[in-house]
Amino acid sequence: MKAFLDGTASFLAALATLAICGLPSWFTYKAIEANVAPWWAWFAVAALCGVGILMTFAFLRKAAGGIAPSRERKRR
């Protein structure tokens, strides 16, 4: 039961990471598209997307293994 709850917490952390990193990236992209933001804002979009993708996959890997988001290994 602990592994299931820890996996669920990791899955929810992955969804939160998508929202926290994805939404600002999307709105920055839309601002660049509308010529509201400068061209160099692409660097911020790329960095935020990169971090978001890495963290999302890390949390999904933990969710598949039943590991809590704040732990390195399974609980005993």
Q: What is the secondary structure topology, with strand pairs?
A:
Elements: H1 2-33, H2 41-65
Supply database-style keywords.
76 residues, mainly alpha, 2 helices
Structure description:
- The structure is a single chain.
- The protein is elongated and about 55 Å long.
- The longest helix has 32 residues, at 2-33.
- With 76 residues, the chain is mostly helical.
- It is 75% helix and 0% strand.
- The chain has one domain (2-65).
User: Which ranges are low-confidence, i.e. pLDDT below 50, for 5 or more consecutive residues?
Assistant: none
As an assembly, this protein is: single chain
Average pLDDT number: 94
Estimate the strand proportion: under 5%
Overall number of structural domains:
1
Residues in helices, as a percent range: over 70%
Helix/strand class: mainly alpha
Radius of gyration based on Cα positions:
16 Å
Tally the beta strands: 0
What is the global morphology? elongated
Short précis:
This protein has 76 residues and is mainly alpha-helical. Helix content is 75%, strand content 0%. The longest helix has 32 residues, at 2-33.
